[in-house]
């Protein structure tokens, strides 16, 4: 019984640990999900799950969301940072791309892009 409890405590501690810069980037999506959930009256678990399904990647064995994710006309990509992602998107937009999903929740530019001032604004998890 004690060993089982100890394992559960260790697992909980490991899940709460930071994994360096990647953890802070993943936390951006979680923060955005919790903020939106509170503002809109949606269970936070739903939005947290969406970020993982839409942008999740495994880090240290744990599925974590990634804010710098794009699905460009059916091809998903994860970028190391916001600037790299925006450069990629700008390049494709200049070539006529209109249907792509961006950021933590993979918001579609074609259908929802008008709700944002710019691509940079659309990329902001907060």
Can you walk me through this structure?
- The chain has 126 residues and is α+β, with helices and mostly antiparallel strands.
- The protein has one domain.
- It is built from six helices and six strands, in the order αααββββαββαα.
- A four-stranded antiparallel beta sheet has the order 4-3-5-6. A two-stranded antiparallel sheet has the order 1-2.
Strand content: 15-25%
Number of strands: 6
Question: Overall 3D geometry?
Answer: globular
- H/E order of the elements? HHHEEEEHEEHH
Largest sheet: 4 strands, antiparallel
Radius of gyration equals: 17 Å
With helices defined by DSSP (H or I, 4 residues minimum), what is the helix count?
Answer: 6
Protein name: Lytic transglycosylase domain-containing protein
Keywords: Signal
Organism: Rhodosalinus sediminis
Key features?
single chain, 126 residues, alpha+beta, four-stranded antiparallel sheet, two-stranded antiparallel ribbon, 55% helix, 15% strand, Lysozyme-like_dom_sf, Lytic transglycosylase domain-containing protein
How is this fold's topology laid out?
Layout: H1 2-16, H2 21-40, H3 44-55, E1 57-59, E2 62-64, E3 69-72, E4 75-78, H4 82-94, E5 100-102, E6 107-108, H5 109-112, H6 119-123
Antiparallel strand pairs: 1-2, 3-4, 3-5, 5-6
Helix pairs in contact: 2-3
Protein name: Lytic transglycosylase domain-containing protein
InterPro entries: Lysozyme-like_dom_sf
Signal peptide: 1-22
């Amino acid at each position: 019984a004690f060993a089982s409890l100890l394992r559960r405590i260790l697992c909980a501690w490991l899940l709460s640990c930071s994994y360096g810069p990647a953890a802070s980037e993943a936390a951006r999506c979680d923060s955005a999900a919790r903020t939106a959930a509170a503002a809109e009256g949606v269970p936070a678990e739903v939005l947290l799950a969406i970020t993982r399904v839409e942008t999740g990647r495994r880090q240290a064995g744990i599925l974590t969301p990634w804010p710098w994710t794009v699905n460009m006309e059916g091809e998903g990509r994860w970028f190391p940072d916001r600037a790299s992602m925006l450069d990629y998107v700008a390049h494709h937009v200049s070539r006529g791309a209109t249907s792509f999903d961006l950021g933590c929740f993979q918001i579609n530019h074609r259908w929802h892009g008008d709700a944002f001032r710019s691509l940079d604004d659309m990329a902001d998890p907060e």
